[in-house]
Amino acid sequence: MPSSRTAILESIRRSHGRGELSAERQQALRDRLHSHPAATIPARSDGDREARIALFTTMATSVDATVSRVAGWNALPQDIGDWLKARNLPTTLAVAPDARLDPVAQHPLYTVHRGPALPEDLIGVSVAEGGVAETGSLLMVSGPETPTSLNFLPDIHIVALPASLMVGPFEEAWARIRSRFPEGMPRTVNLITGPSRTGDIEQTLLLGAHGPRQLHIVIVDDATPA
User: Fold this and answer.
1) Which of 75, 138, 175, 185 could pair covalently with 70 via S-S, beta carbons 3.0-4.6 A apart?
2) Annotated domain spans of the chain
3) Pick the CATH number of 45-220 from 3.90.640.10, 3.40.50.620, 3.40.50.10420, 3.30.1370.10
4) Consecutive sets of 10 residues in the chain, 226 residues long: mean pLDDT of each?
5) DSSP E strands: which ranges in the chain?
């Protein structure tokens, strides 16, 4: 049975008088996508990992995110606890069911439920698929271990970003996604740059209009590149 996405695309093709896309044609399109030449890469995203982490931090904090860095996943609970305490925030968390977040979920400091965010959740914790130094953006994908609702429903979003997944430009981020998911893109890919904001109302900047009011990013020095 075709997926909803496939059914929608086939409906669009029929409306334009075009027949069903053959398996050979689908493969040809995938090959063309993977062989497409990269666009011009901004010079500011060049450099080694440390340079990219420094740029990412500068860009993310310039749009009102906070950024810290820890040495390994076991240091994550303390960093989150310090950040919450400094803001007089509770220690009840909605935590993504990613095994890398087990040190947080199992820590006695926290009251935790794991899985998609619930309407009453104030604080969500998840893991990024990557970081884009060019703009200080987080790359988030949907999946069983990464519920998309955690990105938008809680008022406060805490994101663990593996240092090994830091890339320079967007082109590198998309190339990595394609290599990670060779059978097809995740259902949802979200790019998050700072807390949610809008200036639509009387030209006044308002945080939290369409998602979290606060975004805290913890760069985790993991052992090896993915």
Assistant:
1) 75
2) 45-220
3) 3.40.50.10420
4) 69 75 72 63 76 95 96 96 97 97 96 95 96 95 94 95 93 87 84 72 52 92 65
5) 66-70, 92-95, 111-114, 123-127, 130-132, 137-141, 156-162, 166-167, 189-192, 197-198, 206-207, 214-220
